[in-house]
Specification:
This protein is mostly helical. Among the domains are: about 100 residues; about 80 residues, Tetratricopeptide repeat domain (Serine Threonine Protein Phosphatase 5, Tetratricopeptide repeat, Alpha Horseshoe). The chain has 15 helices and no strands. Helix 2 runs antiparallel to helix 3 and helix 4 runs antiparallel to helix 5.
Length: about 350
C-alpha cells in the first residue's frame, strides 16, 4: 500500500519549472528517495486521519440511534439494524487502519487494533469481517515472530471460509509464512500451503496476476532455504516473468526477483550470473528509490560480497564503501547492517 510513489516520474506543465524543482530536490539530503518517502508518509497520514474521522462519525451516529431506540420502541428493530450497519462500518474502517499500520511496520499498534475488533464485535456474526480480522492478526503475529499464534489465527479464518476463495488463499499464504520461518522450519508444510494458495489464485485471478507472482516467489524462498536451488530458480523466474509483464521491467518488485536469483546463483558458485542479477536490481533501485535508499545499500553489499569471493578485493571494497555510506546516513553507525558492512570491508582489506 502506497509503496511505489516516484516523484521523479511526475510531469509538469512547464519543463523549466520541472528542471529547477528537480535540481533543488537533488541538492537536499536523501534527494528523491527522501522526497518519495515524505510524500508516502503524508498520504498515509491523510488516509489515517480520514479513517479516524469516519470511525468517530459512525460512533456518533450509533449514539444517536441508540437514544432513538430507547425513545421509540415501535421502531426498535429497524433502528437496531441501522446500528449494526454503523458498527460494521466502524469494523471495516478499523481493519483498513490495521492494514495500513502493518504496512508502516507498526506491528504492536496493529495488533492492538485487531484485538479491539475481536472484543468490540464479538456479538456480530459477519464472516467477511471475522475472516479479515483473523487473517490480519495472523499477519501481525508472523511479523512479530509469534508464529504459533499466527497459525491459530489463520486456522480460525479457515474455519469461517472453506470454499476456494481469496480469503482462504490469504490464510494459506500466512500459514506458509509461519511454517517457513526460521523458528519453525517446517518447509514441507509451508510448500503445501503455498501451493494451495497458488491454485486458488490462478483459478480466481488468472495465471498472470501479481498475487500469483507473490506465491511463486514464496515457493522460491522455501526451496532456497531447502537448498533446492534449481526449483528455487524456476519459481523465481516465474515470478519475474509475471512482474515484468504486469508491473513493467523497472518496478521495484522486479528488482526483488533479481536479488533472489542473484542470491541463489551466488550460493551455487555461479558468481558472474549473480553479478548480472545484482547489477540489474541495483539499476532499478537507484532509478526508482533514489541513490541513497537502504535497499540500494543492500545491493552494493551483495555485489561487494560476490567480488570478495572472486578475489577482486578492490572492487569489493568499493562496493562496501558505497553501502557503508548509505547505511551510516540512513540507519546510523550503531545499526547492525552498518556494523556488518564495516566488518565485511575490514576483512576484504586484510586480503589485499
Amino acid at each position: 500500500m502506497l509503496s511505489n510513489i516516484n516523484v521523479e516520474n511526475s510531469e509538469s506543465f512547464n519543463s523549466d519549472d520541472k528542471t529547477r524543482i528537480f535540481k533543488s530536490v537533488k541538492s537536499i539530503d536523501g534527494g528523491f528517495s527522501a522526497l518519495n518517502s515524505m510524500v508516502i508518509g503524508k498520504m498515509r497520514d491523510w488516509v489515517l486521519v480520514a479513517i479516524d474521522r469516519s470511525i468517530e462519525e459512525s460512533k456518533s451516529k450509533i449514539r444517536t440511534q441508540r437514544e432513538s431506540v430507547d425513545l421509540v420502541e415501535t421502531m426498535g428493530s429497524t433502528l437496531k439494524d441501522e446500528i449494526k450497519k454503523s458498527r460494521l462500518v466502524i469494523w471495516d474502517r478499523l481493519l483498513a487502519k490495521m492494514s495500513m499500520t502493518i504496512d508502516m511496520g507498526k506491528f504492536k499498534e496493529a495488533k492492538e487494533i485487531g484485538e479491539e475488533c475481536e472484543v468490540e464485535f464479538a456479538d456480530i456474526e459477519e464472516r467477511k469481517y471475522l475472516s479479515r480480522t483473523h487473517n490480519n492478526l495472523g499477519k501481525v503475529s508472523n511479523k512479530l515472530g509469534e508464529h504459533e499464534k499466527a497459525i491459530e489465527y489463520y486456522d480460525k479464518a479457515l474455519q469461517i471460509y472453506w470454499a476456494d476463495n481469496l480469503n482462504v488463499a490469504t490464510s494459506y499464504l500466512g500459514l506458509g509464512n509461519a511454517y517457513s520461518s526460521k523458528k519453525l522450519k517446517e518447509y514441507q508444510k509451508a510448500i503445501t500451503y503455498y501451493e494451495n494458495a497458488l491454485q486458488i489464485q490462478k483459478t480466481q485471478l488468472g495465471k498472470f496476476h501479481v498475487d500469483v507472482a507473490m506465491s511463486y516467489n514464496s515457493l522460491g524462498n522455501v526451496y532456497n532455504k531447502q537448498e533446492k536451488y534449481q526449483k528455487a530458480i524456476t519459481h523465481y523466474k516465474l515470478a519475474l516473468e509475471i512482474r515484468k509483464y504486469q508491473l513493467g521491467s523497472d518496478h521495484v518488485d522486479v528488482a526483488i526477483c533479481y536479488i533472489n536469483l542473484g542470491n541463489v546463483y551466488n550460493k551455487q558458485g555461479e558468481h558472474q550470473e549473480a553479478i548480472t542479477y545484482y547489477e540489474n536490481a541495483l539499476h532499478i533501485q537507484k532509478d526508482q528509490l533514489g541513490e541513497d535508499h537502504v535497499d540500494v545499500a543492500t545491493s552494493y553489499n551483495n555485489l561487494g560480497a560476490v567480488y570478495d569471493k572472486l578475489g577482486e578485493y578492490q572492487k569489493a571494497i568499493t562496493y562496501y564503501e558505497n553501502a557503508l555510506q548509505i547505511r551510516k546516513d540512513q540507519l546510523g553507525e550503531d545499526h547492525q547492517s552498518t556494523k556488518d558492512t564495516i566488518n565485511n570491508m575490514r576483512i576484504a582489506k586484510s586480503k589485499l
